[in-house]
Amino acid sequence: MTLFLNEQEVAQLVPMDECVEALDRAFAHAGAGQVDNKARSRIRMPGGFFHFMAAADGGQGVFGYKAYPSFAGPGGAKMMVMLYDYESGQLLSCMEAGRLGQIRTGAASGLATRYMARDDATTVAVIGSGFQARTQLEAVCAVREIKQARVFSRRQERREDFAKRSGERLGVDVQAVDSAQECVEGADIVIAITSAREPVVLGEWLAEGAHINAAGGNHWQRREIDEAAVLRSELIVVDDLEQAKVECGDLMWLEARGSFRWGMAHELSDVVAGRVPGRVSQEGVTLFESMGVALEDIAAADLVYRKAKEQGIGVELPF
Q: Which of 42, 90, 146, 259 has its Cα between 20 and 30 A from that of 70?
């Protein structure tokens, strides 16, 4: 029988720390050659786009895909993940994946932070205060002993609400500040999670030894960090090179200018597998460019499915 899980059930079954661990295993499997990940494809429709992304993880014994529309107008996009058994092809689960996507996007940044940020990192800058920003900060707090965070976004009421809610939920001192520069300067970890078309993080603001998670710019027309920030980075990591080459505006723009080559970037699986050190020096800047890949969705969905089966949660469909 196939198990159906709704948004509320999914959210209760995928705590951030466990999701980070699930992604750690998945990228280790990728580093061992046990994963096939297909970059996101998009079909233009009359009112928007249809997005599709798929992955198989032989190490975990599952494969599957995420599919979702993005149309203008009311209703929003209903994301769905379909999870299958690697050996039999049996459809294991069909689950709503809006919250799943939010949590796994944060977990991917948390995983990169685990391997790339300084061990003594205690301060975080968050540029952006939307839906995805909450789990970005939560994930970083799950892998480092964070004592203080600052947040900046364009709307004062949004950033102040984010600071209040995040501080209460995470038990961390979170302050809303009045500029991106004030937010970034002196921070050990910098999170950019926006839909900006022009850079919101400048290289000249970065402290020595800072780690950047650039998690919002998964479109060639978007840029969150400037050229100086990329060029200051002694290590540049992406979750998937194939997908980054068609989606990562921060790097595509510089590649076209000639100041960056794709050979300068490494995949997160190489870092997790130990082939590439996540941090070369204490003073160097590190950069993780997160596109959001299907492997992350499948790893998180597998975690949800296994826990749902153990706890008797969900509805069995007569497939």
A: 90
Report how far residue 128's alpha carbon sits from residue 106's, in angstroms, rounded to the nearest whole number.
13
DSSP 299: H
Q: Are 78 and 96 in contact (CB under 8 A)?
A: yes
Residue spans of beta strands (DSSP E) within the chain: 2-5, 35-45, 48-57, 62-71, 80-85, 91-96, 123-127, 148-152, 173-176, 189-192, 211-214, 233-238, 265-267, 285-289, 315-317
Tell me if residue 300 falls in helix, strand or coil.
helix
Cβ count near 228 (within 10 Å): 15
Cα separation, 205 vs 94, in Å, equals 44
pTM: 0.95
Q: What is the pLDDT of residue 303?
A: 98
- pLDDT under 50: residue ranges of the chain: none
- Between CA 306 and CA 107, with CA 103 as vertex, the angle to 5 degrees is 90
Instruction: Note the pLDDT tens digit of each residue in 258-311.
Output: 999 999 999 999 999 999 999 999 999 999 999 999 999 999 999 999 999 999
- How many Å apart are CA 114 and CA 296, to the nearest integer? 16
Q: Which residues pair with 106 in a beta bridge?
A: none
Q: Which amino acid is at 53?
A: M
